[in-house]
Amino acid sequence: MNESTPIPESLVEALRGAQTVTMLTGSGVSAESGVPTFRDAQTGLWARYDPADLATPEAYSRDPRLVWEWYEWRRGLVAQAGPNPGHLALAQLERHVSRFTLITQNVDGLHRRAGSGNLIELHGNIMRTKCSAEGVAVEDYEPEGAPPVCPNCGAPLRPDVVWFGEALPADALHAASEAARSCDLFFSVGTSGLVQPAALLPFEAQRSGATVVVEVNPDKTPLSRHADYVLRGRAGKVLPALLEATYGS
Ligand code: APR
């Protein structure tokens, strides 16, 4: 048992008995992989930019080269990163639970690389590129140019992520709400709970009778005082401890 992260016995029992578990993650679950959280200060060349100013359609139409190069920098960070024990514990947990859904706000693709299967990428995936005009994913394109252009229609390409002010993919949002409404346990891991509609999901779970809402975060968030359990710690420590306490693995 990981002594620094005591897991309440009642939570272990609830998890052991749960048929349906829904998990919401934010950038905090990737922090231990070396991927800066969204609200971390940016480093180096990008230190002077606020992500919230770059991850917008306005920034892209104003300066597509700047936005494309920022995402290329972030893709480089993500490509060097790897799943951490928190990601791996979630992939393990999925194997123990009959109906397990992992909803992530992260665009870094680390849950998929860790082996998570039933995954809803609410905000898209930074490693995917799409045509800014047709909105469809584009895999093969000439890498020249920043941004490169769509081989089909010639419009500039962009990362396949949801920018501030853009609607979330309707099918992903519907599936996420469904998973929140139909679960026995809802976990909110590594998210500040500041950005809607993802921030509403734990409350949707609570309103629709999810017996237990659990937060995993070293810091307080708006959800903390509403959660049934708050496991105050880092995901890379708490999630493996939860797995070990519940399933001995
Ligand atoms: N383990 C767990 N949580 C952590 C860890 C860690 N090792 N390190 C930091 N955290 C927590 C922080 O305390 C914070 O509450 O992770 C949270 C990160 O919050 P944000 O940086 O706001 O990231 P996130 O909640 O994912 O942002 C949500 O907002 O900016 C948009 O689209 C972007 O998907 C992002 C969304």
Task: Describe the fold and architecture.
- The chain contains ten helices and eight strands.
- It has helices at 9-17, 28-31, 51-54, 57-62, 64-80, 85-96, 110-114, 170-181, 201-207, 235-247; strands at 20-25, 99-104, 119-121, 124-131, 157-161, 185-189, 212-216, 229-231.
- The mean pLDDT is 92.
- Adenosine-5-diphosphoribose binds at residues 26-29, 31-32, 37-39, 105, 123, 190-192, 194-195, 216-219, 221, 234-236.
Give the full name of the CATH homologous superfamily of the largest domain. Answer: TPP-binding domain
Tally the beta strands.
8
User: What spatial order of strands do you see in the largest sheet?
Assistant: 3-2-1-6-7-8
Give the number of domains: 2
Helix-strand string = HEHHHHHEHEEEHEHEEH
Examine the coordinates and then state which fold CATH places here, giving the name of the CATH topology of the largest domain.
Rossmann fold
Shape verdict:
elongated
Rg (CA only): 19 Å
Task: Please tell me the CATH architecture of the largest domain by its name.
Answer: 3-Layer(aba) Sandwich
| Average pLDDT figure | 92
